Structures are given as structure tokens and as C-alpha cells.
């Protein structure tokens, strides 16, 4: 009981003090509590050619890319160096991976990209919605292209080939916003797709010769 009285007295003292000072009471409205959500800043594309001398390739990107290099083991005997060049701009994603294998690991064939493409389709892409597949020549080498959706909200164009001791994977990813279809997104971004993929230039000795 004593505790309750003391609490009540404390409250009465606080209220009395507030009444004596007659401090104005600020009204808190819903408007002051809700902060406006800023609109995402739209980046302007600035397509430029970038040369990666260590990888012997040139490619244009809409924004300066970053390069990440890592080393890992695919098997107990095969050590692989992976270089990933990637650029994010707005909701678009551009990426090139170059995997360098030790000499003698990959067969010396110009159609090896088709074999890797078959493996990619049967294993890596087996759980996604593949909506298109094509094979064409990149110089003397075979390049395979897959168009697929990892989710209903995106579409990826994925090209791959093998040149000498290097495996190349070139990927573009676009977001799909309702009510667009993946076909409409690809058609809308055709100039970007062509600009990126067609700019790939290799300076490998075996490719030039």
C-alpha cells in the first residue's frame, strides 16, 4: 500500500509541476510519424569499352564494372582461377566469368562449348524455366545461349563457350514488372543485349590465329 501511495504521490507531484509550468502540449500527428519513401535514383547508362589485359578480353559495360578473382578446386587435382567481371545498374545486371584451367585439363576442341552447354542444361539449369536455347559460331568456336527464368520476376540471357584453357560465361539479367512478359522485356532491351554481347573481343593467340 505504501508503495502505491508513493507512486501516486510521485505522479501527483509530476502533474502539479507540469501544470505550474504550463508547458504547451505538442500534438503528434500521423503525418509527422511517417517519413516519405524516397524514390530510387535512376542511374544514367554510360556505355564504355573496358579492356582486361590479364584476361585478354575487351567488352563494353553501361557502368564501370568490378573484378573479383578467386581460386578454388573443382576436384582434388584441378585448381581453377575464376575472374568475375560484373556491373549493376538500376535493376539490370551484366556479368562475365572467365575460368582458367591448367594446361591439359580441357580437350583441345573448338566445339567444347556445346559439351559444356549440354552439362549446364542437364544439371545447373534443370530446375529453372528454360525458354530458349541456341548455338552459334564465335569465330571458329561454338557458343551456346540459354534464355531462362529463375523466378517469374526475372529473365536471364546466358552465353557460354570454351577457348583453349578458358571457359567463358557471359550473362545479362533483367527484372520483369507486371504486366510485362519475358518476351516483352527482351524485345525492349534488345539494343542493350546486342551492344553487350557483340562487343566481346578476345585477344587470345589461339583465337586470333
Would you write up a description of this structure?
This protein has 209 residues and is an alpha+beta fold. It has two domains: 2-33; 48-208, 3-Layer(aba) Sandwich (Protein Transport Mog1p, Chain A), CATH 3.40.1000. Helices cover 27% and strands 38% of the residues. The chain has six helices and ten strands. It has helices at residues 2-21, 30-33, 112-124, 182-188, 190-198, 205-208; strands spanning 48-52, 57-61, 66-73, 79-89, 92-100, 129-138, 141-149, 154-163, 166-175, 201-202. The strands form two sheets. Strands 3-4-5-9-8-7-6 form a seven-stranded antiparallel β-sheet, with helices on both faces.
Number of helices: 6
Instruction: Determine the strand fraction and express it as a percent band.
Output: 35-45%
What overall geometry do the principal axes of the alpha carbons give? globular
- Widest beta sheet: strand line-up: 3-4-5-9-8-7-6
Average predicted local confidence, pLDDT: 84
Biggest sheet record: 7 strands, antiparallel
What is the name of the CATH architecture of the largest domain? 3-Layer(aba) Sandwich
Query: Could you name the ranges where pLDDT drops below 50 across 5 or more consecutive residues?
Result: 1-21
Short description:
The chain is of the alpha+beta class.
How do the strands and helices of this protein lay out in sequence?
Layout: H1 2-21, H2 30-33, E1 48-52, E2 57-61, E3 66-73, E4 79-89, E5 92-100, H3 112-124, E6 129-138, E7 141-149, E8 154-163, E9 166-175, H4 182-188, H5 190-198, E10 201-202, H6 205-208
Antiparallel strand pairs: 1-2, 2-10, 3-4, 4-5, 5-9, 6-7, 7-8, 8-9
Amino acid at each position: 500500500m505504501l508503495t502505491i501511495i508513493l507512486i501516486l504521490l510521485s505522479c501527483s507531484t509530476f502533474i502539479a509541476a507540469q501544470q505550474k509550468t504550463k508547458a504547451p502540449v505538442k500534438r503528434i500527428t500521423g503525418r509527422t510519424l511517417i517519413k516519405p519513401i524516397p524514390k530510387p535514383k535512376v542511374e544514367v547508362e554510360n556505355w564504355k569499352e573496358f579492356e582486361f589485359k590479364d584476361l585478354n578480353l575487351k567488352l563494353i559495360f553501361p557502368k564501370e564494372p568490378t573484378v573479383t578473382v578467386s581460386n578454388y578446386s573443382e576436384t582434388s587435382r584441378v585448381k581453377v582461377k575464376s575472374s568475375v567481371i560484373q556491373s549493376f545498374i538500376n535493376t539490370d545486371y551484366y556479368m562475365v566469368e572467365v575460368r582458367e584451367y591448367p594446361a591439359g585439363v580441357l580437350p583441345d576442341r573448338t566445339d567444347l562449348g556445346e559439351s559444356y552447354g549440354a552439362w549446364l542444361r542437364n544439371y545447373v539449369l534443370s530446375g529453372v524455366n528454360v525458354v530458349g536455347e541456341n548455338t552459334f559460331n564465335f569465330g571458329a568456336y561454338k557458343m551456346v545461349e540459354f534464355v531462362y527464368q529463375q523466378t517469374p520476376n526475372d529473365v536471364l540471357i546466358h552465353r557460354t563457350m570454351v577457348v583453349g584453357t578458358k571457359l567463358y560465361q557471359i550473362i545479362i539479367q533483367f527484372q520483369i514488372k507486371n504486366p510485362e512478359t519475358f518476351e516483352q522485356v527482351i524485345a525492349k532491351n534488345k539494343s542493350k543485349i546486342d551492344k553487350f554481347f557483340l562487343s566481346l573481343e578476345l585477344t587470345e593467340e589461339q583465337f586470333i590465329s
